[in-house]
Amino acid sequence: MRPALLGKYGLKSPQAKQAREEQIKDKQMLIQEIRDAHQTWVAAQAHFEFALDKDQIDYAIYAMEAAEKRFEMLIRQAKKLGVSLIDSDRLMEV
Predict the structure, then answer these.
(1) DSSP conformational letter for 2
(2) At 3, is the secondary structure helix, strand, or coil?
(3) What is the average per-residue pLDDT within 8-33?
(4) How far apart are CA 57 and CA 71, in angstroms?
(5) Contact indicator for 16, 4 with CB cutoff of 8 Å
(6) Is residue 9 helix, strand or coil?
(7) What is the C-alpha to C-alpha distance for residues 94 and 90, in angstroms, rounded to an integer?
(8) How many CB atoms lie within 10 A of CB 52?
(9) In the chain, helix, strand, coil percent, each to 5?
(10) Mean of pLDDT values over 41-45
(11) Contact between residue 21 and residue 5 where contact means Cβ atoms under 8 Å apart
(12) 6: β partners
């Protein structure tokens, strides 16, 4: 008998089910964070395109680099957790 199963019919323990649900919820939150970070990065790039003076350009570059670093950090975190784009649509439907 596997540890996560109870009884002869293979019913999952409440703790295993709860842990799985929490893991799915964490992955869903990470996927949403990645989507938000990507939108922020795209917006920062657009802001850079329309910056007029030196201060606006400096700020746009700073914002764009910060958004890119955040996006890359979240992508690395997703890779560590084994989350892929293929999983993202399925996870978001749950």
Answers:
(1) -
(2) coil
(3) 79
(4) 21
(5) yes
(6) coil
(7) 7
(8) 7
(9) 80, 5, 20
(10) 95
(11) no
(12) 11
Distance CA 32, CA 54 (A): 34
pLDDT above 90 for 51: yes
Residue 21 corresponds to which amino acid? E
Cα–Cα dist 29/52, whole Å: 36
Question: Stretch 78-83: mean pLDDT, rounded?
Answer: 88
- HSE-CB at 35 with a 13 A cutoff on CA atoms is 11
Torsion of CA 50, 54, 59, 62, to 10 degrees: 100
Average pLDDT, the chain: 83
Is the distance from CB of 71 to CB of 41 less than 8 angstroms? Answer: yes
4: pLDDT strictly greater than 60: no
Contact call for residues 92 and 62 (beta carbons, < 8 A): no
Longest dimension (CA), the chain: 72
The answer, yes or no, to whether residue 68 has pLDDT greater than 90, is: yes
